[in-house]
Write a structure and sequence with these properties.
two-stranded antiparallel ribbon; elongated; about 10% strand; about 180 residues; two-stranded antiparallel sheet; about 55% helix; single chain; 4 strands; mainly alpha
Length: about 180
């Protein structure tokens, strides 16, 4: 019997996927594995380019709204364009049933849209296990999933955190004389 997937983990994985796409990152290893497990092809530049180009701005607006705790409209627009098809699936083997927001094997852009829309709706409605944020470093607008213990993360990466800390230290030294 396989290990049961926690619902919060599934929402978190889909939120990470939404953030990755909204940030314009190249597909990561986690995304590739997730698509393979759900029998979904990686969106191809040729046939999926137009559909992906339509998804990205709506997804980015929805991620921003979820990170800020509102407004609701960008997430609702995404939900209208890519309505989730909720189903229970056990593709990981006996005893591993968990909820899905899109059918396995669906076309990649629709699958991504449905899953990301549903996950962002959960985040926006206050799912306590998943929090999104926007990097507080000057000049960086990247989003992140805050999975820190007390949900107080402020930066998308250690590089941004370090750059901000160094800049603050230099400003204090300069002000001190």
């Amino acid at each position: 019997m396989g290990e049961r997937l926690r619902y919060a983990d599934y929402v978190g994985n889909m939120a990470r996927l939404a953030v990755e796409i909204a940030n314009g990152d190249a597909p990561g290893e986690e995304r590739g594995e997730m698509l393979r497990r759900h029998r979904v092809a990686e969106p191809d530049a040729e046939p999926d380019a137009e559909a992906l180009a339509a998804l990205v701005p709506a997804l980015r607006a929805a991620v921003e709204a979820a990170a800020q705790g509102g407004p609701l409209e960008p997430v609702n627009v995404l939900l209208e364009r890519y309505p989730p098809v909720i189903r229970v699936d056990g593709h990981d083997g006996p005893g591993t049933a968990h909820m899905h927001f899109a059918p396995n094997g669906e076309d990649p852009v629709t699958w991504l849209g449905r899953n990301c829309a549903a996950a962002l709706a959960h985040v926006l409605c206050g799912d306590p296990a998943v929090t999104l944020g926007r990097c507080q470093a000057v000049g960086c607008g990247r989003f992140y999933v805050d999975d820190s213990r007390n949900r107080t993360r402020r930066f998308c990466s250690n590089a941004c955190a370090s750059r901000t800390t160094v800049a603050a230290y230099r400003a204090r030294r300069k002000a001190a004389g």
